[in-house]
Amino acid sequence: MPLEKIEDLKVDWDVKRTEVGEVEGIPLPKVICDMWHKIWAFQAKPDDLLIATYAKAGTTWTQEIIDMIQCDGNIEKCKRGSTFDRHPFIEWIIKTKFPTGLEKAEAMPSPRTLKTHLPVQLIPPSFWEKNCKIVYVARNAKDNLVSYYHFHRMNLMMPEPGTWEEFFEKYLDGKLLWGSWHDHVKGWWKAKDSYRVLFLFYEDMKENPRREIQKILQFLEKDVEKDVLEKILHYTQFEIMKDNPMANYTFLPPEIMDHSISPFMRKGVVGDWKNYFTVAQNEKFDSDYKKKMAGTSLTFRTEL
Length: 304
Known about the structure:
Layout: E1 20-23, E2 26-29, H1 30-34, H2 36-40, E3 49-53, H3 59-70, H4 75-78, H5 83-86, H6 101-107, E4 113-116, H7 126-129, E5 133-138, H8 141-154, H9 164-172, H10 181-191, E6 197-201, H11 202-207, H12 209-219, H13 226-235, H14 238-242, H15 279-292
Parallel strand pairs: 3-4, 3-5, 5-6
Antiparallel strand pairs: 1-2
EC number: 2.8.2.-
Keywords: Cytoplasm, Transferase
Protein name: Sulfotransferase
């Protein structure tokens, strides 16, 4: 029996900001920690595709691009369900009455496209054992921080963000859900040398979406006609997606995501951090970043 779509559910959304626990030193919602044994034991299939990111790094955008590719540019097919239903978020648990990401994934016929924010060391081992393809998207830390802050403000299941200054410090300390951005991107950057991981940059996708979509097509071993590529480019533009109720998270009730505080799809630009960082914060961030990213060949652009 198929699971209900989230947008069709009539439930009492008594939402509280999540308590935080830890799995191997990584902060995660306590409800996820309590179910960790089930998440770790998740059985991937060889034809699964996993979309992995640190939160607020272009996840939904990448999901929409991949869904459009898989549906050969058929926008109506891509509106068959919300992002949440089309690509189960394997570790996510909203509340006990609602199907978990695991349950949604397990009920889904193959081939499945799944989503995670887990750092590389917490990915269920079956993904590596089955040699699954993984698309990882990374966004520069400064813009990622700003976007994550606004997401905490509007997503009433996330921990209380506190002030901008407090959130800034927590980000540097790796104390936010899914842990340190620095460790996350470095871990996945290293994994691409051993596994089937396509590592993409948000900034490259903004600069030249056609080139980056062609990389995804090549990785997925898929060809599309020129007109289909044009449709994918059109319908995955920020402004178009912002108006798509199946992608913009307005399918969730305001008790979970309050878009009047800040829309889920807020700006989608490179360089918005300049509107938030003080001179002192920028200096502190750069100094901290230099230490934490020393010894890696991974480089980011903070403006285009």
